[in-house]
Amino acid sequence: MLNIDSARLWQSLLAMSQIGATGRGGVCRLALSAEDVAARRLFSTWCRQAGLSLESDAVGNLFARRRGRCAELAPVMMGSHLDSQPEGGNFDGVYGVLAALEVIRALNDHDVETRRPLEIACWTNEEGARFAPAMLGSSVFAGELPLEQALRAADSQGVTLAAALQASGCQGPRATPGPMPDAYFEAHIEQGPVLESRRLPIGVVSGGQGILWLEAELEGAGAHAGTTPRAYRRDALQAAAAILTQWENDAPSRYPQALWTCGQLTISKPSRNTVPGKVQFSLDLRHPDAAGLQLMANDICERIRSVAQARGIAARIETLWHAPPTPFDAGCQRLLAEAAARLGYPHQDIVSGAGHDAIVLARHCPSAMVFIPCLDGISHNEAESIEPEHAAMGANVLLHAVLARANAQDNAS
User: Is 128 left (phi over 0), alpha (psi -120 to 50) or beta?
Assistant: First the structure.
């Protein structure tokens, strides 16, 4: 049976991990940084060596295409991203890009031609670590985020996406929104503990849970730490602490299926001996049900306003990003499951807790994902790790599912 070259895939992953290496086992490749550009450059070199044509669009998404017998047909697309968290791991995103490249290499090795063209997408700013929102590049490609709005997004230093694209040279002529592929497949590490705990090498992803990003600003009044009695204080940080503590205590019973995270909390103009007058904090809310996600968002917004009002503090809340729960295409899932079964790989259906470019694409074209385990479920962390055997198994499943889709005469799902 046709298989990918597992040693070549692993060596490609190791080579890519040197770009932006942190010295602590992980990588830092923020979107459109010098490190991200270097990773794209290496990937582009490998693509040219594999005989692929390259093209970029107005938001910096990079596409590598292999010709098919019927050039006029929409391609079957694979992909993921090369950007990382500030202290990220070696496999989040990059595994999907290089597994897709290895699919192409394996087809080249065995002179296998496909009916439809194949295309690899390397999406811009999937992580959202530098520019908000996450999945920015794929959202522009899909028409969910206007290009003009995306270009105005700024990082923590005030650098806009437009400026970063110009400085990096990653912007290209391909139009956005882009033409939808026939189907989209993405291989990824699970980023959770389920597959490893069940000793399963493959997860066929049924869909992604909903995600809502909120940003709250609380403004009280700065005051002297030694001369202002507690009754006279309008301490914005203490208000934020009360909100988050109350929510952590109350929400588990109210929303047992939900997850929430405060990943950023900033004191405006902090000083050791000044009562904090203004703070900003983020909230990442996740729920598998759309109504449950909205109910939870309404609840915490009301909690923020109530606590702030009781403490004489002004509250402003902004929704930065909303991705509804999204199911994956049944036909594409079936191709992944059938490929795993033919290869003799134990597998199960699984829901993605993380956001992915595939979830954006799934709202516009048939899409699906295949997961492989990661050590202890750890991701977004320099300790992120996978087994070479699992990397090869996920790529083999991707290979056979994509091949079946690309050669099908009727792709109605």
Answer: left
First-residue to last-residue Cα distance in the chain: 26
Tell me the sheet residues that pair with 348: 203
Round the CA-based radius of gyration of the chain to a whole number and report it.
23
Check if the beta carbon of residue 28 is closer than 8 Å to that of residue 88: yes
Quote the tokens at residue 77.
């697309």
Tens of pLDDT, residues 14-68: 999 999 999 899 999 999 999 999 999 999 999 999 999 999 999 999 999 999 9
Rounded Cα–Cα distance for residues 94 and 377 (Å):
17
CA 361/CA 99 separation, integer angstroms: 19
Q: What is the DSSP letter of 329?
A: P
| Residues comprising the chain, all counted | 413
| Sequence-separated (6 or more) residues with CB below 8 Å from residue 36 | 20, 29, 30, 82, 83, 168
Q: Is the dihedral of CA 371, 339, 10, 112 positive or negative?
A: negative
Query: Facing residues of 316 across strands?
Result: 217
Strands 202-208 and 347-352: parallel
With beta carbons less than 8 A apart as the criterion, state whether 307 and 242 touch: yes
Contacts 24+ apart (CB under 8 A), 35-40: 36/82, 36/83, 36/168, 37/168, 37/169, 37/170, 39/82, 39/94, 40/82, 40/122, 40/170
Half-sphere exposure of 147 (CA within 13 A, CB side): 14
Report the alpha-carbon distance of residue 239 to residue 229 in Å, rounded: 16
> What would the pLDDT profile of 200-223 be if each residue is shown by its tens digit?
999 999 999 999 999 999 999 999
CA distance 16 to 386: 15
Residue 122: partners with Cβ closer than 8 Å, 6 or more residues away: 40, 43, 61, 62, 63, 64, 79, 80, 81, 82, 97
* Closest to 65 in 3D by CA, of 167, 157, 231, 179: 179
